[in-house]
Amino acid sequence: MNSTLFNGIKPSSVIVIFTDLIAIFCTYFLCNYLLSHYLSPYADIDQKNQWLQTIVFAITISIFILSVGLYNVKLRETFTGIVIRIFACVIFSYLIDKLVYWVINANQPHLYAEYFSAIAFIALVFTRYLLSKTSYQKLGEKNVLVLGAGERAKIIEQYMRRKTDRIGLNFVGFVEMLGDSPDGIKFEKKLDLDEPLETFAIKNHIREIVVACDERRNVLPNESLAACKRLGITITNIVDFFEHETGQVAVTQVYPSWIIYGPSHYYSHLHKALDWTFNTLISLAIFSIVWPFMLVAIIAIKLEDGLTAPVLYSQIRVGLDGKLFSIYKFRSMSIDAEKDGAKWAQTQDPRVTKVGHVLRKYRIDELPQLFNVIRGDMGFVGPRPERPQFTKEFELDIPYYNQRYSVRPGLTGWAQLKYPYGSSKQDAIEKLKYDLYYIKYRGFLFDLLILLRTTEVILFGKGR
């Protein structure tokens, strides 16, 4: 699996992980001190049990912090939002900690877990606050030089314009090259080198050169690029650079060779059988947990629309290899929502019922798709399946759109985590960039990361 999957794990992310662990283990010593001297001075504290508490808490809270995106240095969130996420992580870690102690039947001093969780929350918020007052995000920052200032280079200006998009990167400048489109970058620093490329790179401590010129033939300084490579400077084309920094594919910039020489998506019958078994077992396990929410959803729909109102809604979607199948959802729109034909769902869609707004926000409307997973129509992770009324148009107008059919569609996906909502052809293009990235790098660990990060979508009602 390519390391670009974990493009959020940068040196600054390592600092955050390290400070979180320090905060948790400092909590252990502080909590024991308070218990033994003030809160429960006569309690018989079993150090072995308390170390178990710390280790379980450290592991579980690290997983939860990862799942809500707090180890992603490019997370766009206010400090208040970060505090809320930490609080949710602490609550879940506390519950798992209590469950572990109940299962192993181990003793704890009275209220030890409660004290530990409260102190850990304060410590984690405090360390995050201290980090926010430092320039830790500049740790490991590299100087980048871009060869090109035309159409291909402009995608950096368009899609990496925010500060958070450029964490770890310092763009020294964009070198104007022969053949570059005049309708290129507008706001970035343009350079006209008057010295050999390798000399400029050494003087400016360049660590990566991105080739983004519109015309390559007889334009690129190949000898200078080779010299830079011998000096240990990374040479990257714009498509690969854009992929590993943004987690998406520049659809308008890739050539057919990207598909032809990319990874194969053919799987043996054994692999497909194991994949179905794994997804089915997970579906049954999840159903055993979420069935009360499904029951509440059914009752709520009936109360709002009447006892005779349908609870489930099915649509034809396009799946693996372009085959059609019926997808199932809890009905979140009015019964006659599509009496005039298929329409895009909007962010504030007037057709959505009051109950439907809640079901959609927390993804409860998607739970009946567990049946689609068991039936083999879908997996847990993959591109979201689209309606054939729209895909016919997309296949004609959007390059490489039919590549989505090379993998099984999913309940959740990389595009659902990275792009908030899709209600137009332009949104379909933007989501395709993430879907193609997932298709290229898909694997067990990537799927696991997406499943963990889906927790953020469910808890905080983000994405679709």
TrEMBL record:
Ranges annotated as spanning the membrane: 12-30, 50-71, 83-104, 110-131, 281-301
GO BP annotations listed: colanic acid biosynthetic process
InterPro entries in UniProt: Bact_transf, EPS_sugar_tfrase, Sugar_tfrase_EpsB_2
UniProt GO MF annotations: undecaprenyl-phosphate glucose phosphotransferase activity
Primary localization class, coarse: membrane
Subcellular location: Membrane
GO cellular component: membrane
Keywords: Membrane, Transferase, Transmembrane, Transmembrane helix
Gene3D superfamilies: NAD(P)-binding Rossmann-like Domain
Entry annotated with the keyword Oxidoreductase: no
Membrane association type: Multi-pass membrane protein
Keyword Transmembrane helix carried by entry: yes
Domain Bacterial sugar transferase residues, every copy: 277-459
Family the UniProt entry places it in: Belongs to the bacterial sugar transferase family.
Name of the protein this chain belongs to: TIGR03013 family PEP-CTERM/XrtA system glycosyltransferase
